[in-house]
Amino acid sequence: MQAEDGTPFVRDAWERPSGGRLEGDGVSRLVEEGGLLERGGCNFSHVKGTQLPPSATQHRPELAGAPFEALGVSLVFHPRNPYVPTVHMNVRMLAAQPAGAPMVTWFGGGMDLTPYYGFEEDARHFHSVCRHALSPFGDDKYPRFKHWCDDYFFLKHRNEPRGIGGIFYDDFAEGGFDNGFAMMRSVGDAFLEAYLPIVQRRRATAYGERERDFQAYRRGRYVEFNLVWDRGTLFGLQSGGRTESILMSMPPLVKWRYDWHPEPGSPEAGLYTDFLVARDWA
């Protein structure tokens, strides 16, 4: 993405010394006011902690309080052009060591697309790549993880999805460590194939203040989801993670309005009627 943007990403390496409740290291790569990306970044982290935070044991109460190790890569890109969608991708592994019991390891990850102006071609391409990345691991994985993504990236307080979804899975340990690792790697490797063709198709599309205004409004939904519902954000903050890296996912310019609705029949209304609905894209 640095080559596509044309602007060097800032490299920010960090380290948490041993002795605290969280130790480890990582690297953040970030761009602001780039040629393509208004804001975007990619985080790598490898940390160990004395106690799993509540967000990580929500579905595994037997691991509450256990020491843990976590490894992950996450990225979010917010393009300037409203016709280029925002995208998120994350892959991660967690291992917990409950007292007097064997180590428990599981994986999570996925990617999802958040357009401001929808295009059927883009939605079908993104989902088709996601399906292909999961196909070696069973025909059930894409429909299962697509549905999981639709359910997860949903703003319950707004009764609307964040975008057009993609795939999402968590607490995955089926088939053992090697199978989980291979699937996680396949998802991560598929990201550029899923996103870059969309960027290249839309980045030169002309836009004006109307489109930018709507983009800022819809970005508000992105912020609301990440701060209210996202388990990754909660895990980072609850475990004492690096705030600057955790909140890197936030868009740079956002707008809220009171009880606003797009004009019926407008391109903005089309996002709601044709794309922010549960659909089978691939």
From TrEMBL:
Pathway: Porphyrin-containing compound metabolism; protoporphyrin-IX biosynthesis; protoporphyrinogen-IX from coproporphyrinogen-III (O2 route): step 1/1
Gene3D superfamilies documented for this protein: Coproporphyrinogen III oxidase, aerobic (3.40.1500.10)
Region (Disordered): 1-26
Entry keywords, A to Z: Heme biosynthesis, Oxidoreductase, Porphyrin biosynthesis
A Pfam family recorded for this sequence: Coprogen_oxidas
Gene Ontology terms for molecular function: coproporphyrinogen oxidase activity
EC nos: 1.3.3.3
Top EC class, one word: oxidoreductase
Subunit structure of this chain's protein: Homodimer.
Assigned protein family: Belongs to the aerobic coproporphyrinogen-III oxidase family.
Protein name from the UniProt record: coproporphyrinogen oxidase
Protein species of origin: Caldimonas mangrovi
Gene that produces this protein: hemF
